[in-house]
Fold this sequence. Notes:
single chain, alpha/beta, Rossmann fold, Tyrosyl-Transfer RNA Synthetase, Structural Genomics Hypothetical 15.5 Kd Protein In mrcA-pckA Intergenic Region, Chain A, 3 domains, six-stranded mixed beta sheet, five-stranded mixed beta sheet, 19 helices
Amino acid sequence: MENHHELLTRGIDEIIDKKNLEKKLKKKLRIKLGVDPTSPNLHLGRSIPLLKLSDFQALGHKIVFIVGDFTGVIGDTSDKEAERPMLTEKEVKKNMSTYSEQVGKIIDMKKCEFHYNSKWLKKLSYKDIAQQANIFSLNEFIARENIKKRVEKGKRVSLRELLYPLMQGYDSVEVKADVEVGGTDQRFNLLAGRTMQRYYNQEPQDIITNPLIEGIDGRKMSSSWGNTINLLDSPNEMYGKIMSLKDELITKYFELMTRVDLKTIAEYKKLGPRDYKAKLAFEIVKMYHSTLEAINAEKYFTKTFTKKETPEEIKTIKPSSYQLIDILIESRLCSSKGEARRVIEQRGIKINKEIINRDKEIKKGDIVQKGKRYFIKVI
């Protein structure tokens, strides 16, 4: 972070209570972030609060990272206009298997507290939950914009959804959070933490909300929409996805998802859109992989997209199934069967340079191409 001023400005939408937080910064604080494992991949949208944790960690504050293995089963409806389905414990366990590794790309896990919230939420009795629920009113919950819309349209809102803010708020009580970080869509849940802490005679946490970011299709970045740039994407895939972004998102990505100083970003902005975007792609790949892999990804992109050549070195995959859709998912060219079917139907898949419009069995030695720049060889 270029200076302490940016700690409370860069990548931040709102702070509650800013004056109080400024005073508290003189002591070592406990900075909390919770993430539900609703997908196996953390994406760049998640990096915005994680980078803010890294900023605090660099100044000596204690980071408290919570994987919502319990809340992930229940489901948060904060960013949804429809009811989020409950996940099974098996799905959640599978999704969170590499979360520590992914988070470790941004913050120092050796200096971080790492928790699973099932540790304390499973122990709550019906009486405990009733007492917590008594703190809040139904009117407060249904006044939330997305819930209000659903109620007005006559859509179902389950009682389960009302319990989620209680659980996230109780997480703050258990870890004694001084500050909680989360997206703007989490505002109600973050405030619930303050209310819950007061109930348990703790000083209420201050809140930092970060902006939400658009994905590669211009909509909000979301795993369910398949428009994400994931922390575990290969260097070539990560570079190519960033180069496909709309030009108007370049500065926003630079400011929110890198720590390149603002003066340097201003200089990069003087370049043409393609070169400006290439600087961003290089920086992001360097952050999550290495400088060498960023250089190689840049060369790969130039050869496959600018010069429209088939690359000499192609990633190989030995799939468990040779059906095209299964291969697209196993190779991470697509994040779900639904996305794979859409890409095939939209004529975005080639096998040995021939466009494919249906799922089919792939032979060993075939080269699968997605779009203009993603290639894999089946072995």
